[in-house]
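Dear Dr. H.,

I hope your travels went smoothly. While you were away I took the liberty of generating a structure for the chain from your last submission, since the lab meeting agenda had it listed for discussion. I wanted you to have the full record in hand beforehand rather than looking at slides cold. The sequence, exactly as received, is reproduced here:
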Amino acid sequence: MSESASRRSRTRKNQNPQREKLTVYVSPDVAARIRGRAEQEGVSLSEIAEQLLNRAVLERAESDWWAYAGARVSQVVREEVRGMSDRIAMLIASGAIEAGVSRSLLVASLAQTNGEVTAQKWLSDARQGTVNRLKKPSEGVRELLGVTDGDETQPR
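The corresponding predicted structure, in token form, is as follows:
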């Protein structure tokens, strides 16, 4: 662009009221790439710069939106999981209380009819049997845990 054409473009009024003039400074490498792209596509430097800036602004806005959406989704999930974990903790505590009450009543009943020593032995045997069964999970639990037949007590 000649010096006089450059001066005319700076002093010329904006012909399109829907556009605003914006002066930017870029590195020589970026300027050369923009000029090359404009020449390659057969459009003016102003058009190619507008296209590139529009695309960059839209991509940035989309990226910002996804960042906001991701943060909001994470927050909602955390709140929901917290609520579920509170409910699960309450259910576990209720189950433990009920199991404790049942155990106490069973031991008292067994001790009354069979003696304290026999009741405690049966309780110990029942507990050990339950522990052993839990160490060897059912096929569905084995599959869920990824346990192989040769190693039934260690999840992968």
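Two observations you may find useful: DSSP finds five helices and no strands in the chain. Residues 4-11 have pLDDT under 50 and may be disordered.

With kind regards,
E. W.
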